[in-house]
Amino acid sequence: MLLIHPPVVKPCEPPPGIAKLAGALRAQGVPCSVLDANLEGLLHLMQGPRAPRDPWTRRAARGYPENLHSMRVPALYENFDRYKRAVLDLNRLLETSPSVPEGARLGLGNYQQRELSPVRSADLIRAAEHPEENPFYPYFSRRLRGLVEAGTFRVAGFSLNFLSQALCTFAMLGFLRKEYPGLAIVLGGGLVTSWMSSPQWKDPFSGLVNQMVAGPGEEAMLSLAGIQTPRPGPSTPAYDVLPLQQYLAPGVILPYSASSGCYWNRCSFCPEKAEGNPYRPLGTDRVLEDLSLLKARTRPVLLHLLDNAVSPRLMRALMGHPPGIPWYGFVRITPQLADEDFCRDLKRSGCVMLKLGLESGDQEVIDREHKGMRLETASRALINLKKAGIATYVYLLFGTPSETPAAARKTLEFTAKHADCIGFLNLAIFNLPVHGPESQGLETQTLYEGDLSLYTGFKHPLGWDRGLVRQFLDKEFKRHEAVAQILRRDPPIFTSNHASFFRNVTMPSNASASSAWNRSTF
User: Fold this and answer.
1) Stretch 474-482: mean pLDDT, rounded?
2) Residue of 206, 238, 250, 499 with fewest CB within 10 Å of its CB?
3) How many CA atoms lie within 13 A of 279 on its CB side?
4) What are phi and psi for residue 78, nearest 5 degrees?
5) Residue 272 within any structural domain of the chain
6) Same domain, 314 and 194
7) Is 0.85 surpassed by the pTM of this model?
């Protein structure tokens, strides 16, 4: 069995989906091979031949070996300017690769093609029919051919989680379908789960893909391997089958999911709720045991908890039994974070950064969107986390159906007031899920043309449409000096994945920075 992680996603940490599948197969004695085609493919294109004509590309090509090496060394993360230059130079090599077709855009975190849309099934089928048009074709045609012909694979499984992977995924599976028609193709992952959760799902890929898998894929893959009754007992993700030292980070970042779904599951317009995904936590004993095993096997410098929201129960378990790894993850703003002692205990557990879904600085908007949070609690949480030495990556969402321009300005006011407690910001414009009860009362408009689109446009009931929201963000919100100073220290491209390495940055107005990484924590 061959498990494949396709391009393009940020190549800073090993892919958790196929590591989890590999661990489940290994626990049942099923042989498998794992291919991170994202990491390998991006490195292949970055080091490929080119005839650079502009000064930036010439500089990026000359500096490639040093920049690539530096991304894997802690010293680079001590100087934000040097880090930023290395990242953007590596990204430039992808943008200017001669393998990228006209009208396409490729970078360290995304791939887009002007004439092909990842939300149109016909375009994905076309990508499968013409794999040679994909920029990664010289890499994956050779790599896949070598793996298949050297092994005894009967099944190739693709983990498709993001739209940025869709076109490359179908180009790769199209190549396998043409070259090795006897090979069973299985397609799963987060994006596939979302597609299959749609009431309008009709499986347009039935002639191309042998099996589509929604949700966790362990049972399906074991069944394909002929194991109907797995041996009892838990399995731990198998990260050691991946090239851990090759990712673009100053050491191994260990991604780990302690749950699926969301324990709150009440927010309006939440995809988890719309898709009916239940909350399934692992027991805290199991989590702590997994982390202990994975720490010994991978020797990580950072633990990335992937949960939609790390539960207070798990946070308390980590306080009682610190994993011995600096960690970060996404959490809800709850009364526990308003407790200064709780935040100090979090810090002692190894927590170095928390991603917080504040969404709005207007209490009416928060209440109408059923966030279950008070702004007074958010204020205390930000202050306490700052005191405890835990960085915050705050997520704001603009243009929800209950927001007005006045409410958006309250969000600006709240953000500016707490700027000294906010480490990083993520600003997003609201997308309306195509399906879900809350969308029924809104006048919808086409946002993304395609039968696989998960979102739709809508006429804002209060007149606060996307164009006005974007104008507010560009001309007012981002130009506020307190906000601009926060935005300037966001790591380019890698954003929250690398932010905790820069959590101690104090960014002056000229946007230079040094002493970015407190090594003693790692």
Assistant:
1) 97
2) 206
3) 13
4) -90, -10
5) yes
6) no
7) yes
